[in-house]
Design brief:
It contains three helices and six strands; from the N terminus they run αβααβββββ. It is an alpha/beta fold.
Length: about 140
Amino acid sequence: MKTYVKVILFFVFFVAVSAILAALYLYNLKHTDMSKARPDFVVTATGLLKEFEDNEALASAKYINRIVEVEGIIGSINTSGDNILTISLKTENDLSSVICTFPAVADPSTFRAGDRLTLRGECSGFLMDVLLNNCAAVNAK
């Protein structure tokens, strides 16, 4: 075999093995434990929503993919078919809220509508509501 063919085959093999190892690493990567994570920002539910409504581009650059600790009053609690708990925190805007999604292991019986609590999660954006994923309750009042 010619030398340049050997070099090309070695390069292709190296790239393939690297891609497989990277995929395995990302597949097995654990989520951050939000109950122990240090928040990048501490805000109220109303304040967080207001920042997104005032300037969505600036708020997106500030909050998306960052850990946010948000305080508010529970508006509604929903459990999906996959046992994923979703809590909606009330804001001054009746049409929008802060939606916090918990992992499947969260116990919905520990929360009641009208309770004030502090949640910590990773902000994933704004679509009429501010979305926080992988949330954990910091404290319930």
